[in-house]
Amino acid sequence: MKVVIIGNGGHSKVVQEMVIRQGYGVHAIVDDKYESEQIIDGIMYAPLTSIHKVLDQEMKVVVAIGSNVVRKHVVRKLKLPDERYLTVIDPTAVVSNSAAIGYGTVVMPKVVINADAHVHDHCIINTGAVIEHDNSVWDYSHISPHSTLTGNVTIDEGVHIGAGVTIIPGINIGEWSIIGAGATVIRSVPGHSKAVGTPARIINRSLGVVKDNM
């Protein structure tokens, strides 16, 4: 199967390698850094406006963009059916048979996703992260490298969990919030907030609202 990858930054480099390790071929890399269509080593490079020219009915798409906000914007702009998005799971990841992984989500090397966890659409579960049993990670969230979500944690839409964060059981992180690297979260965090430290404390309650019609 051929895959079209949207975005060609650092995150995309990792996704491209994962796609190949899964046995798929990269047909095109689409990014607005390219002003026109060009073929290099058999791969089409093109601006986002060319997406429907390079994409046929047999191909899948991955939005390989690290920013949660931009990833949501691109998905909404493309208006593709959910089924067109490829879920990319590195062969070194350990995913429970009872876990559910949504469309377009990327599960990086050495990740562990345990029983009855549900990771929704267009998420990034980054290198070495642990998603324990009965977690819910909602759309467009990013769990950074070596973070641990213990049991029954809920991560709402668009949340960014920084590298090396630990979240104790039963905690809810509200939509579009940010948890700073290395934090230990022992209390729930409301939406559109930023929390840092050990134990984590809220330092900003007014992060911007991401509109559904963006």
TrEMBL record:
Record key words, sorted: Repeat, Transferase
Transmembrane segments: none
Gene3D superfamilies linked: 3.40.50.20, Hexapeptide repeat proteins (2.160.10.10)
Residue ranges of every copy of the PglD N-terminal domain listed in the record: 2-78
Keyword set includes Metal-binding: no
Residues annotated as the enzyme's active site: H133
Residues annotated as binding acetyl-CoA: H142
One Gene Ontology term of the molecular function aspect: transferase activity
Superkingdom classification of source: Bacteria
UniProt site (Increases basicity of active site His): D134
UniProt-listed Pfam families: Hexapep, PglD_N
Matches recorded under InterPro entries: AcTrfase_PglD-like (IPR020019), Hexapep (IPR001451), Hexapep_transf_CS (IPR018357), PglD_N (IPR041561), Trans_hexapeptide_repeat (IPR050179), Trimer_LpxA-like_sf (IPR011004)
Annotated residues for binding of substrate: G66
Family matches, as PANTHER family: ACETYLTRANSFERASE, UDP-N-ACETYLBACILLOSAMINE N-ACETYLTRANSFERASE
Protein name per UniProt: Acetyltransferase
Natural source organism: Rossellomorea vietnamensis
